[in-house]
């Protein structure tokens, strides 16, 4: 008896219906694989799954309409799943909702996990898996479909090199998004060793990221609210730093982090991540799902070189599209001989976001424990950061200026 059969045989009685009807596909060229899985899935009266081979899927893609698109697709990792997912994504690119894709594999090594992230796979189940794992996939997918929410956007701030200013920028921008927007964002500090966001926000966190990642399955809206700490502005955040330095090497799984992110995204419009320490294995899902990746550099050759390397690696590793990359030149000064034009040229990028050097404002605000946007709201450094918060909030700078002008006319 194989492992999928074990899952099927374990529970023969009908299951409590899911919170909403779930339509799905099981894709495999192996009849045993599909029959065991569909027998198990049929225990839910409102899960309607059809089984198809890879070539049947390829043939049906041209006729696929929004109304016939499945909510969940389970793919047998034994066949060429990469080509299949690429064709699926191509066929569904006009759709408003992309189905959740779950890959079932015999061994989930790092190569498979990396490719799965690259192809936007929601979860990878290693055979044998417990029925609870598969049930959880169904519960989550049904809950998300029922809530019919648009998932919030992820914006990542990542340093090209240590100390470029990712933390201060991510925190200030998150604070500005809170002030500019009706619904506050969530700020995540992934740095377990030197994370400074609680200090910058002068707020002690009750829980840290590892607490959240230990219980991702049980996180509902209320549990999430309890785990997140709240700054007086309304900004929610979760930090990673532990008191015991020996415990600081993160061992979180990328899938747990991805699950946590999905839950946050179902409840918040904007998730802002301070990834100042660079790429870590568990944070890869945030990079592959991000709307924007802000790479923070300064005007020096090593930093620009590292940024070029980071862009190259992210493109190669996760297939990230060029338009997601935004380059922030922090501590910008006209006096430094490396010009914006030179930086653009060496990074093959059309636009740079300039945040001026302002040691006085930054050190006064951090020493006083007051956020930059409150302490130095009129300074050019805040103007530079506002361009970034407007990008996150999808505001067109020129349009905004037009509206502001109109309002000032009315006020006069
Ligand atoms: N635009 C700026 N003008 C002046 N000082 C700045 C500016 N941006 C950052 N700094 C200062 O640079 C230092 C590093 O900033 P920050 O902690 O944000 O960097 P980081 O890139 O997150 O560092 P790490 O790699 O340690 O995580 C801080 O002392 C901060 O006050
Ligand atoms: Mg930092």
Automatic annotation (TrEMBL):
Occurrences of domain Response regulatory (ranges): 23-142
Spans traversing the lipid bilayer: none
Modified residues (4-aspartylphosphate): 76
InterPro entries referenced in this protein's UniProt entry, alphabetically: AAA_dom (IPR025669), CheY-like_superfamily (IPR011006), P-loop_NTPase (IPR027417), ParA/MinD_ATPase (IPR050625), Sig_transdc_resp-reg_receiver (IPR001789)
Organism lineage: Bacteria, Pseudomonadati, Pseudomonadota, Gammaproteobacteria, Vibrionales
Superkingdom assignment: Bacteria
Organism of derivation: Photobacterium profundum (strain SS9)
Protein name: Response regulatory domain-containing protein
Record GO cellular component, one term: cytoplasmic side of plasma membrane
Key word Transferase present: no
Name of a matching Pfam family: AAA_31
Any one GO molecular-function label of the UniProt entry: ATP hydrolysis activity
């Amino acid at each position: 008896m194989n492992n999928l059969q074990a899952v099927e045989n374990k529970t023969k009685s009908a299951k409590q219906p899911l919170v909403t009807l779930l339509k799905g596909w099981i894709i495999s060229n192996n009849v045993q694989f599909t029959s065991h899985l569909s027998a198990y899935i049929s225990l839910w009266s409102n899960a309607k799954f059809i089984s198809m081979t890879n070539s049947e899927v390829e043939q049906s893609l041209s006729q696929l309409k929004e109304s016939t698109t499945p909510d969940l697709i389970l793919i047998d990792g034994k066949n060429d799943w990469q080509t299949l997912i690429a064709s699926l994504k191509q066929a569904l690119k006009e759709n408003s909702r992309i189905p959740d894709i779950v890959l079932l594999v015999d061994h989930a090594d790092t190569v498979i996990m990396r490719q799965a992230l690259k192809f936007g796979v929601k979860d990878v189940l290693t055979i044998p898996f417990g029925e609870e794992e598969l049930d959880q996939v169904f519960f989550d997918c049904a809950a998300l479909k029922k809530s019919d929410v648009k998932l919030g956007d992820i914006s990542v701030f990542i340093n090209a090199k240590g100390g470029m200013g990712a933390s201060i920028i991510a925190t200030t921008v998150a604070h500005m998004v809170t002030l500019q927007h009706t619904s506050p964002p969530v700020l995540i500090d992934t740095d377990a060793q030197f994370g400074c966001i609680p200090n910058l926000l002068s707020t002690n966190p009750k829980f840290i990221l590892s607490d959240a990642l230990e219980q991702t399955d049980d996180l509902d809206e209320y549990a999430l609210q309890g785990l997140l700490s709240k700054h007086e502005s309304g900004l929610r955040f979760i930090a990673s730093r532990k008191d015991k330095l020996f415990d600081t090497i993160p061992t979180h799984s990328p899938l747990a982090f991805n699950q946590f992110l999905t839950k946050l995204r179902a409840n918040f419009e904007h998730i802002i991540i301070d990834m100042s320490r660079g790429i870590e294995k568990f944070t890869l899902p945030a990079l592959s799902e991000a709307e924007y990746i802000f790479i923070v550099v300064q005007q020096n050759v090593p930093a620009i070189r590292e940024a070029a390397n980071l862009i190259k690696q992210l493109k190669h590793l996760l297939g990230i599209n060029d338009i997601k990359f935004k380059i922030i030149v922090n501590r910008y000064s006209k006096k430094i001989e490396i010009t914006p034009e030179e930086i653009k040229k060496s990074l093959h990028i059309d636009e740079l976001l300039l945040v001026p050097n302002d040691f006085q404002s930054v050190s006064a605000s951090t020493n006083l424990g007051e956020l930059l946007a409150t302490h130095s709201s009129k300074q050019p450094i805040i103007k530079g950061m506002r361009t970034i918060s407007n990008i996150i909030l999808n505001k067109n700078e020129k349009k905004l200026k037009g509206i502001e002008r109109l309002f000032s006319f009315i006020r006069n």
